[in-house]
Amino acid sequence: MERRDPHDAGTPRKYGSYFKDFIGGEINVLGSRAVKKYFEVKTFTKLRGQEPMEVLFHVSDRSGSLLLFNLYVEGVSMLLSERNEIGSMLDKRRGDLDKLIADMRVLNAG
User: Are 105 and 9 spatial neighbours (Cβ–Cβ below 8 Å)?
Assistant: First the structure.
C-alpha cells in the first residue's frame, strides 16, 4: 500500500464546507476553560434557518499553533461521528484503504 498525505483525500475541504453554514449566522461565546491538554470554548450558535444550539469547540495548542480538533454540536462529537463514518466506509471496502481514498476523491470532486 502506498503512503499518502492524509490531506490529499479532501478532508480539509469537507470541514471547510461545514463552516460555510456559519455565513450569516451568529456565534456567541459563553466561556472557555482548560480541559486536560486542550481548551473548550462553549458557544451558543444560531445558523440561518435553524434553531439556536450549543456548540463546543475543542482547540489544542500542543503543535505550537491553535488548532481546532473537534466540535460537539448539541452533545454529538463530530470527531467520533466522522471516525465512525470513515470506519463504516472502510468496512464496506473490506479494509482496502487505497479503494477508500480513491472513492473519497471521487466524492470530493463533485
Answer: yes
